[in-house]
Each structure stands twice: as structure tokens, then as C-alpha cells.
UniProtKB/TrEMBL annotation:
Keywords: Carbohydrate metabolism, Kinase, Serine/threonine-protein kinase, Transferase, Xylose metabolism. It comes from Oceanobacillus neutriphilus. Gene3D superfamilies: 3.30.420.40, Winged helix-like DNA-binding domain superfamily/Winged helix DNA-binding domain. Belongs to the ROK (NagC/XylR) family. It comes from the Bacteria. Transcriptional repressor of xylose-utilizing enzymes. This is Serine/threonine protein kinase. The keyword Kinase applies. It holds the Pfam family HTH_24. GO terms for molecular function: protein serine/threonine kinase activity.
Amino acid sequence: MFNLKYDQKRIRKYHYFLLLSLIQKHKNISRTQLAKITKMSNTTVGKIINELIDDELILEIGNTVGDAGRRAKLLTINSKGAYIIAVEIDLEYTNIALVALNGTILSSLQINLNANQNPNTVMDIIIKNIKLLMTKFQPEIKEKILAIGIGLPGLITWPKGEVLVVPQFHWKDVKVKSYIEARLDYIVYIDTDVRTALLAESLFGNMTQYDNSACIYVGSGVGGAVMMNGEILRGHHNMLGEIGHITIDPDGALCDCGRLGCLQTFFCSSDLEKKAQMPINEIFQAYDREELWAKRLIEQARKYLALTIANISCIYNPEAVLLTGPMIWKYPQLSDGIENLAQTYAWSALKTSYKIVKPSETRNNGIIGASAIVLNEFLRFTNDDINNFDF
């Protein structure tokens, strides 16, 4: 068996990754189906599949009826074939986990770590705990670790992995990727929690069938992400999707960014708390009791969330819009029935052009998302070609 971490030259061969990507996309697929999709010969497909099996990246499972009634072996990703260290950094806690190629969390730990302190101190604690988690792994697992994926809020350069600013943490100009790579013998990929959420659902969750999609992430702020033809759109400086800071009302409420009337001031948790002068859970409790002030506040929030969905459909014309983030997971009152409300604001030509999708996983969403950064980079060499095939 080869070493995934060091033998990159061999495993990045075009057809090798093409077939691996197709197997990941379809979950269960036969050699004959792969040959038909790629227009490669059965012999070539067979040889590459044998390599993938020998490298323990895929497995043969079960049978399906093939051409002329023949039984064909189905192929699937081997959950024990390779692993990813995933790190989710939030304001008051950090999660670290070992994640398999199929998105299964095999081992994890949570650190009660306040990120609002010196970033080097935070990273040193994270590095220490990654090493602690790895003491639980056998050597054969350690050699199969592809890389470390990190998700956190804020503005982050790609692919350099430098944090330009994280307002919640009071971080500015922090070289997270290079700092951690210098202390751990693994490549590090780092991206925003919004993009990782969309990647997680696209690879493992409820968005696997959509190659053109958008994500609206609602938490203490509001963020967005977009995927076209299976690829994440990043824009200049990796800042595409910062919808929370679109100006809606130039005479509106003061945003954390220092400007007035940003979109997120209408429905993110921190701004709802400022308006009500109480914790967000108490606001929704009052809403459930049908207290008039709370109903007005939440109904206004719902209206602006619906407007955001309608506007996103005009800008990007996605097949699906993923609604995710703590405000969506914890408080379904905000988004239940939002489809009908969004349609009242949608351009008539686009009213039925997209679906609204909720996340499949919430408890481990951040960790799965952090691992998805790595898996997406591991497979992305052939994504453009995969999306050109007629499935």
C-alpha cells in the first residue's frame, strides 16, 4: 500500500482521480457504468480500479445486474482508506476530529477555548490538542492522513490561508496556515465556515445532486457562498459571498463593521439581541408566547431573510439555496415556511427555478465542513471534467 501523504505524484494521475471522484459522487457505481460515463475502455477502467482497491481508497460491495443480466460489482469509497484532521474554531469552543473519506467522524474532542485572545496562543492550544488526539491513532492511520482542514468565521485569503480579519475574535492579519504547518508535519487548508458548510452538504449531505448552488449562513452574522459547476466561487481576495454587508438601509442600524444598515442587522442573532436587549433564546420564547414586540421583530427578520433568498436567485440563478447556520438549526421559527414568503418577493421568472434546502447534519456541521475543504481539494483536479459528463 502506498503512503497517501508523500506519494502525491502517483495518485494525482488524471484518470486515477477522475474515477475516484466519480465513485465519491455516485457513492455506489460499477466498472461498466464508469466506462460508459468516461468513455474509457473497460480494460483501462479495470486497471485503474485495481490500483484504487490496492491503495485501499475504494471497496467492492454487493452486486447489481449489468448488461445482458450479468452481475456487476459495485464500488464505493473506503472509509478506512484515508483520513483528515478537521478543526472547527468558534468564539467559545474549538472542535478537533479525525474524519474518514466518507465524512464519518471517528474520534473527536472539544476544547472550551475562548478565541478572543492572542491568536498565537489559540493556535498553540489547538496544535497541542491535535497532537493529543493523534496519540490515540495507530501508525497505519497516521500515515493515511491527507491534510488538516480548518473552518472559522472571517475574511480569509485563499490559498495562502491568512486571516485578514475575524471581528468576533478580534483577529487581524494572522498567518494561520503557515503557523500551523511549521509546527505540524501536514498541509493545512483553511476557509470560512460558510464555504465549509456548503462544501459539506455538497459532498456528504442534502446538496449532492446540485452543481449550481448558493448558501445563506445565519448566525451572529450573515454570510454567503456560491458553487457553480461544482466549484466554489471565490472572487477577488476570496471575498465573494459577503452578503451580510450589503447596504439595505443607509440610515439603518449600526453594524459591527462600523457602517449603517447592513443586511445582517435585520436578522442575525447579535443584532436581534441588541434591538431586544435580551438573549436570542429569550426573544424566540417571547415569540412563541405570541408577545407582540417579539412577533414584530421576528416577522421582520423573516421578511428580510426571504428577500435575501429572492435576491440571491436573481444574482446567481442557483438550482438550490442552502439555509444553514446556528439561527437556522436552533430556531426553526425563523425559516419554517420561508419558501412561500420568498416567492412573494421573487421575480416571476425565477419563482420555481430553485429549491430551498436545510442541512442534513447540524451537530457536527462545522467539523464535517472543515474536513470537506481537504476532500474537495483532494478531488478537485478533475471536477470540471466530471461536470461535463452526462450522468
